Each structure stands twice: as structure tokens, then as C-alpha cells.
Amino acid sequence: MLPDSASPDYLAHAGALRQPPDIAHHACLRYTGKVNPTVWQFFDSAGGLITIPIDAALASDDAEVLVDTAVAGLGLLYATDWLVGRQLASGALIRVLPDWRIPDEGAIHIVTASLAGMPNKTGPFPTGWPRGFSPTRPGFSRPRHEAREAAPTIA
Asked: CATH number for the 4-95 domain, one of 3.40.630.30, 2.40.160.20, 3.30.70.60, 3.40.190.10?
């Protein structure tokens, strides 16, 4: 996973980054839902961990707001590639530090007592949702006004 991203417009006026300490000279977009939102952490190619304290140009608990803000050219975004996959694929965002990875990739968990006892109307969700992560559909982030796919039916 390659974490940092920014719009080409932002990088054109703010300058490129070569290593994580360069972040101190950039506008950072902070996700407050992170365990420790005041720092960004990176693994180098040898597995060494570096922690960078950040000052936020904008802080939010809404990841989509931060993605939209990054696309608008207002700062650097520290996010998993599944969140910004569409924006990376379209070129609206580009990876900033491609040789560095982040330690926490995020996760989505579905916890149920048993799929066998689940009502038919809720069964399609835990069995059908992984299609949104298909390699042919990069990223999980969907434009807010895009029509949602119909839920699969259980025979």
C-alpha cells in the first residue's frame, strides 16, 4: 500500500516530497478517526518505522471530505489506497511517497453470530459486499451521486 496522495495542482504550487520529513512543509489533511491523528507513520523499504508529527490544514472525521479536499488541491492526504483508488486511477490524485508504506492499512470487519440463521433480507450484504473491492473497480470510494448497484438476491 502506498499512502500519501495529493492532486497534481497541489504539488505544482507546493512542491514535491522526497521523504516523510518533508511533510512538515506541507498542508496536511488529518483524519481524526485515526488512533493517533496527530502523527503519520511510515515504513521504509527495510521495514524501519518513522513517525512524523503533523499540523493539519484541515481535520475531519469524514474521510470523503478529506478526499474531496485533496482532489481540490488543498493538501496532502494520508489514506489507504482502497479509499482513494478511483482518484489515483483517474489521475485526480497521485502518490507522493511511493517508496514508503503506512503500518495501519485500515480494515472492514463484518461480525455475525452465524450466516445460517441470518434473515434473507440481510443475507446479501455480508456475502455480496466484497465485489466493491474488485481489482476491476479500483478503490472503495464512490462518487456520492453515483447510483448504487442493486443488492444480490438469495435463491
From this structure: 3.40.190.10
Asked whether 142 and 64 are in contact (CB, 8 A), the reply is no
Map residue 71 onto helix, strand or coil: helix
pLDDT score, position 73:
96
Q: Does the predicted TM-score (pTM) go above 0.85?
A: no
Name the pLDDT band for 1 (thresholds 50, 70, 90): very low
pLDDT 10s digits, 81-95: 778 989 999 999 999
Q: What is the DSSP letter of 20?
A: G
Tell me the pairing of strands 56-60 and 28-31. parallel
**DSSP states along 78-147:** E--HHHHHHHHHHTSSEES-TT-B-S---------S-STTS-TTTTHHHHHGGGGG-TTS--S---TTSP
Contact (Cβ atoms closer than 8 angstroms) between residue 39 and residue 52: yes
- The C-alpha atoms of residue 145 and residue 140 are separated, in whole angstroms, by 14
Q: How far apart are CA 20 and CA 33, in angstroms?
A: 21
Please identify which residue in the block is written with the cell numbers 521523504. 19
